[in-house]
Amino acid sequence: MYEVLVGCVRKGIEQKVECTPLASKVRRDSYKLRYKVYFEEMGLQSPNACTKTKEIRDDIDQTAVVINYYKGDCCAATLRANILSDGSAGIFESLYNVDQNIAREKQAVLTKLIVDKKHRKSRATFHLFREACLIGLFRDIRFAYIDCVPELQSIYKKLGYVVNGEPFTHYETGYVVPMKFDYQDIEYLRAIKSPCASFYDEFHNSIKFNGQSFSSKCVNTWSLEMKS
Asked: What is the pTM of this model?
């Protein structure tokens, strides 16, 4: 597991996105938001829900990067990214139809995208996807996989995701559609005017990296300074 906080902050904006693979407060905030939305709000019965701690966590959290978006001290939204070379994404690999012909270090599975009810009309989801995209570019990911409810397909398609198999039912998210994002098809992203296309320029123009590599076996720090 990584031993340092990975943080990305946009200058001039109080809200910030923090990423950390540590079992820290950031992780616990994510686990608690999952419980709050899935278990308390939606009434979904997850076998991973702990009524004592009011958290939802599972085995693949151990090798995941957790991305939280904060509004003040409140964790307004969260997203989990599992880069497959860091560890298995469990059943999601088959549910999302992960390409078995592509190296695992080139693929990531995104799950547990949750936004607090009070912040669903904010740009919280945008910030999470932006950060996930930047991390994917940094790790040289080719494909990212995710699911969405059918009524939100059009939003994901505008970002650049395409349907990647038949819909399925999951005990925590219900009836969903598997989707895939191709990091290398920048021409397609520009053609559909995806907001993700701008993240490529942001990444290449403003990244500052300290260290030789970024993997679960080598601890380094990196930072992104965005132009205000």
From this structure: 0.81
CA distance 88 to 51: 26
Phi and psi for 24 in degrees, rounded to 5?
Answer: -120, -170
Q: How many CB atoms lie within 10 A of CB 34?
A: 24
Question: Is the Cβ–Cβ distance between 178 and 168 less than 8 Å?
Answer: yes
CATH number corresponding to 6-206: 3.40.630.30
User: Could you list the pLDDT tens digit for every one of the 228 residues in the chain?
Assistant: 222 233 333 333 333 444 444 447 888 999 999 999 999 998 888 899 999 999 999 999 988 888 888 888 888 999 999 999 999 999 999 999 999 999 999 999 999 999 999 999 888 898 899 889 988 998 899 999 999 999 999 999 999 999 999 999 988 888 999 999 999 999 999 999 999 999 988 887 765 443 333 333 322 223 323 332
Query: Side-chain half-sphere of 145: how many Cα atoms within 13 Å?
Result: 23
Cα separation, 176 vs 152, whole angstroms: 10
Helix axes 196-206, 124-138, angle to 10 degrees: 50
Domain map of the chain by residue range? Answer: 6-206
Give all strands (DSSP E) within the chain, no chain letters: 6-10, 16-20, 49-50, 55-56, 65-71, 74-83, 107-115, 143-148, 162-163, 168-170, 174-182, 207-210, 221-226
